[in-house]
Fold each of these.
Amino acid sequence: MAIRAILADDHPLTREGLRSYLEHESDIQLVGEAADGIAAWDLIERELPDVALLDIRMPGEDGISLARKVRERKLPVAVLMLTTYDAQQYVLAALRAGAKGYVLKTATPDDLIQAIRTVASGGVYLDREVSSSVKAVDFMPESLSPREQEVLLLAGRGLSSKEVASQLIISERTVQTHLASIYDKLGARNKTEALLLALKYGVVTLEDLLE
């Protein structure tokens, strides 16, 4: 089935350009567009799309606030931020709010399509420019074991715990144990934060995640 997506951006030319990219992809269906945050939320609630492409700054309500509402209401919608802002504080705020991806408007159409497919399948996607700007600061995490790195990377590509277990030929309970250890070592609360922190501290690279 096609990935159902909505697009929210207050610039008509941006929406038109993005629409033209998406219309060429047979596995992605654009089911709605919005020019502000209020209309975007109405679309999200009504359509329950697989992916919501949201600009960070919009009239009415910003993309980060919308991502937080999606998370709080536990809606089955993957939020993908599409923005011009690459500052670390925006990236962290978006992912902590529950966004599953962060793509700059300077990204290529192929990168955008890959981001949509990644978050739709349950993975996390960070623009290459964004990931390179997220640097370690004053904390050095405990090293992950090779097995923990494998578990984290597979989970980050959208695999469920059962699928990770099958691929690594270990039990699902062992996968959960590894994830708990990963969260503890990185100081993360969930898979999204663990991936972000692992990238931030250089534990894994974006190239590892996208292989």
Amino acid sequence: MRSGRLQGYAAVMGAATLWGVAGVVAKSLFNRHLEPKILLEIRLTGAFVVLLIILIVSKSAARVPREALGRLALLGLSMTAAQFTYYTTISLTDVATALFLQYTAPILVTLYARVAEREPIAPLKFGAIALAVVGSYFLVSGSRGIRIHPLGLTTGLLSAAAFGVYAVLGRGVRQIASWTVLLYALGSGALVWSLAVVPPWRAYLAGYGPGEWAAFGFIIVFATILPFGLFLYGLQTISASLASLTATLEPVVGSAAAVLVLGEQLTIPQILGGLAIAGAVVLIQIADLLPTPTRSEKLLPPAPD
């Protein structure tokens, strides 16, 4: 059981790492005046088609119980909403503010788990959440503080709520293979977005250069298929609140990638903030994996009937 949870944490940390690196790629596309809604269309439809081809070629099962279709559709919509509101927050404020607001999600998920699933909030878990939130603030703000646009604040909090819903719903379908879950989630999100917001032909037939296509390919595979699949895999063995807290590694990786790729500089408060987040992730994993008699039962929410 402990080895399974350890693999779950490793999968979520891998997802956060890929998301963090992908943030730099997305930022480069926005700097070229690509609209967030266009990027989201390319991301959703492209990832759905690529994953569908992979599952067909590998002859992997893609059927799911009929009663799970509604939850999978909601999972896709929450994933789409989280991505769009996050991109919108970036356009209204900046990447730092968007990251900080989205990663208030562990608080929302923990409160939901406490009320709906009676998951206890142990002192170590509460301390890890507080450490992660404070660390996120200093990492993304440095010494200048966070600039808040009223609408950006709203979309940022909505992105946190949508990401939290995604984590909770993903935990609820853990009996289905993670890649199959992701295929249906991407399909539902792509269908709604294509019909209601941006048709695929408008997104793909806009005369992009080789650099843009390379960036799209990276986002489709390494920012969507792999990280979302890894996150869903992690949810098979650890709770939604623990997974969302572990995913706060994303701004740490994103900041490091910005330093290496974009030449950005980190201040002392930002470095300390990153260390605080890393400490929070380590703390929650130590608390969960300690071989005490009842800890695993306390941290994992009850299985659905």
Amino acid sequence: MPPPEPTDPPERESFSHRLHASTIGSGPRLVMAHGFTQTGLVWNSLDRRLATEHGVVRVDMPGHAASSHVAADLTEGAHLLADLGGRAAYLGYSMGARFCLHLAVARPDLVDSLVLISGTAGLDDPADRADRRSKDEVLADELDPVDGPDPTAGIRTLRQARVDAFLDRWIRQPLFAGVPPEANGMEERRRNTGPGLASSLRLAGTGTQEPLWSNLARLEMPVLVVTGADDAKFTALGARLVGAIGSNATQVVVGGAGHAPHLQRPADVASAVLDHLR
């Protein structure tokens, strides 16, 4: 059965350790880690739907929003996530899935259950990783250039204009085709800073991730892998994740969705996640 229509439960703020998070709902703890350029509040209605049965901890990941000051690679960020979330179920999307997967490998005792949305265990080929790091460095330089501020514009205005231009191009990628404008969280994404996003690319981009494929068979917690049917690349990667993890992993492919199924089909994703967590 589909989950009940979400309401807006009371919100509690915390600045525990170094990462910022807000918590809604009550019940078993579920920690949610967002994707690149998003924030702890960019989940469309997925977070509120899950909060009908769980205490949902919505984290601003390193380099993002209220955690923009936190510069951390995937290993460091996974430990910061663990410090904040403790023992819980963990859900990560894209970049957030990489952090959650690192946490599950490093501290499986803290991860009761794992949900990976459009995630990967890394690029196998060192040349591919180097190429991705090079491309991400170009993007990082765009967000946080080494040249001085434009004397014709205020520093704050110029920095926000750079972030806005980057975000506009980012969400227009074919990867996110089909996400309705009202669901992409553009205004919330504008809380990010150029230096914060640049540090995220440089330290926690896909090219920085050492492949974890050989470690996945050690995972014993229940694992749900969610992908969009229109995202052939990550649906194939999802099948590979399930195969590498073993019988405790399952995959759900969401019809009519691409790389961000939670933004396109939040009710369908919520149903799959709640069934998994139950």
